[in-house]
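Interim report, section 4.2 (structural modelling).
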Amino acid sequence: MSKRVGLEVSLAIAEAVKLADVDMVAAYPITPQTHIVERLAEMVADGELKAAYINAESEHSAVSLCVGSSIAGARTFTATSAQGLALMHEILFITSALRLPIVMVVVNRALSAPLSIWGDHSDIMAERDVGWIQLFAQNGQEAFDMTLQAFRIAEDHNVLLPVIVNIDGFTLSHVIEPVDILDQEEVKKFIKEFKPFYPLDPRTPLSFGAFATPEYYMEAKKQLEQALFNSRKTILSVWKEFKKLYGRNYTPIEPYKTNDAQLLLLTIGGIGETAQTAVDEMREAGIKVGLLKLKLYRPFPINELRRYCQNIKTLVVVERALSVGGQGGPLGFEVRSAFYHERKKPFIHDIILGLGGRDVKVDDFKSIVKRALKNKPKEYEFIGVRE
Amino acid sequence: MNTTIPVYIPKLINKEENFVYGHRACQGCGLALAVRLILKAAGKNTIIVSPTGCLEIISSPFPQSAWNVPWVHIAFENAAAVASGIESALKILQTKGKIPDKKTNIIAIGGDGGTSDIGLQALSGAFERGHNFLYICVDNEAYMNTGIQRSSSTPFGASTTTSPAGKISIGQITWKKNMPEIAAAHNIPYVATANPSYPLDLIQKVQTALAITGPKYIHCLVQCPTGWGCATDLIIRIGTLAVETGFFPLYEIINGKYRINVDVPKLRPITDYLKYQARFRHLKPADIEIIQKKILQEWQKLKEKAAK
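Predicted structure of the assembly:
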């Protein structure tokens, strides 16, 4: 039986990690990730969770410990934020290329400078191309569910890729939400035993991490890309199974009031719920607006996105990240390029807001839609910044 | 240790080769020799972790491998962290009954750059956490793999491509970082120095270390004809001269207690060591005097520690 409780989202994630019966947690503290790892350390200290909890001396070593652990065949978890994720950057590529099914929760936070401990997506957008599967949760229940799902997806032998579950710093990580916590028996139906594809065993000596000459490098990268695209199939089947077992539905993009909409908002992460409230209010006022919430960021669900946007005039990408010196936000680029060759395409209007923890309010979405419905909205603009 | 080796003793060395021929080391590479001996000492039941560096490059050009034991390379600065992860994982998997309970040697083998420069933080973390593994620094005293750039382990006065001797420079102007002392400062149970010119000493140290639970550190000087500018057929002699001149003494620190393994009643002049190597060829008598003085000081300090 599952139990519906009011729980801080970070603690709900720790519950999911415990239910997945991880063998190894290696981490380094950074705000706002800390509550997740503190709770896990507590569980290990109390014997509730039978795992090694290793205090690394940096995030670089934390993820390196995870890599060693995963090669050795242990189910492995870590969590980080912002500067910590940036410090891991180098090893993230290696983790995916070595096809190690590590699960990491990234509590999204702004990158320095100026130093900011508050939420946005600048940390994770800088890790867009590292070859990990990436999920974005918009509420506590999704954070809990996706953490569990991540182990199933990552460890499936048709996938064998690391997974990042993204949750917004503070506005999601530190809020108390109602969460259905599954019990151990229920989870047993879903989580399988982790079997490493290649054993690290002196009886069968294998070399991990060889170097490649130009004769081999490109093939390795192409294979990784294929693996990441192929993972989509498993992700969808894991979600299907999850729905069958527990009733909650997951899709790469969650549509909301998209039928007959002339304008769609596209959000990623926790602001999706705020946008939803705004859509409800605007619909009451007769504005034909709908919402797409991007849940699966890698592999990017390009076909769903095109499909949802077939009959709309304007698509407004709303994101908490900026590509300085580029053309707006990184998600905006990606969405624009998804439509470039389409014959029928919406005008794409990219909004940058909520950087460094600045509030994103229901009224912001209303004003965004108002601007976008003007005759000539800009390709991209900032919202809520003093100029 | 008695330096005269009875002729039959080499026959007692493990015949098994776990670091095998076909690797791409330069002719006369002291590193390849040291690693071969380390593997003979450790045996088959061993997992090796290497950071990026000479060893990784010479042994793992895909699809080939010179390793007959499991071998893991991830990046440059994290070998100690990766080894920590492997050790912790095997331990917890054994505790949870997921894998059979048996001892496997975990040895990280890194170069001087991967140990004393970029990998020092990860190494310190692994020592402090107390993982049961052996870290061996194979020290050829510069970034040889990338083209002989200086490291913090390059000796004073050596000319490298980034500390070149020039009209107004003698080359490296800092003293070699004392890694064994840094390791010992972590209060780990075993620290030793070694050098493949003393194969039995090296083998014995690896075996001693592997029999001890906890973090262990061996600092192994490895001759590099390419980077040092020395004759490939002289590397064994150069290794013994490093010891006989006091340039690189062989000693152990077991639970804090120092022991000199190859005693040298009267050190040979340092010129006997320097003269075979092009990296020191530019040094003037006054520079050599500075080096000589420092060596005598350090040797004295070591002897005092060993006398305690």
